[in-house]
Amino acid sequence: MRPSKRALDEMRPVSFERNVARYAEGSCLVKFGATHVLCTASLEDKPPQWLRGQGRGWVTAEYAMLPRATHTRSRREVTSGKPSGRTQEIQRLIGRSLRAVTNLPAMGERQIVVDCDVLQADGGTRTAAITGGWIALRDCFEWMRARSIVKDSPLRDHVAAVSCGMFEGKPVLDLDYAEDSIAETDANFVITGSGGLVEVQATAEGSVFTTDELARLLALAQKGVDELLALQKSALA
Length: 237
Known about the structure:
The chain is of the alpha+beta class and 237 residues long.
C-alpha cells in the first residue's frame, strides 16, 4: 500500500488556476496534491544577446523554492550569490521542455521568461512546473496574439510531465515526498500531446532497474500525462 493510499497508477489531485498574477502576461497556479507551484510568463521585447539578429525568439525558465516550501526553512539562494546545481538543472529542464513545443522563429526577436516558484513542496516540483508552465506560456502567447504582436500562437503542441518510480518493488505513478525519498528508482518523463518524448530522467537510487521496469514506468507515465493533458485542455476551455 502506498503511504497516500493511492492506487499504483493513481495521480494526486491536480488543478490549474489561471491568471493569478496581475501583471504577468500569462500565469498559472498549479497543484499536484500538496505540491504548489506559481508559474508566470513574462514577455521581453528582445532576445538574449547571443541570439540577436537571427530572426527568432527564445523561451527560458527560472526556478526557485520559497524558504518554507519544505519542512524546514531553506536559505534563499540569492543570499549565496548563485543558484545551486539542482536549481540550474531543473530550470534548464523546464526551458527545454517548453521550447520543444514552441515555434521559435514565429515569436520574432523576443524572449519569454517562465518563472516557476515553489510555494509548497511535496515531491514532483519540476513536473508540476513544466505542466503549469505550459499553461502560463500558452496564455502569454494568447496575450501577444490578441495585441497583434504575433499572428498565430507559436505553440505547436501541449507538453506535460510526471514522475514515476519503483516503490517497494512496484511501479507507481506521481510520487509524493514520502515515496520519492525512499524509492528504489526515481524517474521523470516529459511528453508532448502527440506522444513524443522530450526528456526521460531515470535513476537507480537503491538497486538497479531493468529495461522491463523502465518500460512499465514509461507506460505509467503516458497514462499520467494523458490525464494531465486532458486537465490542461479543460482549464483552457
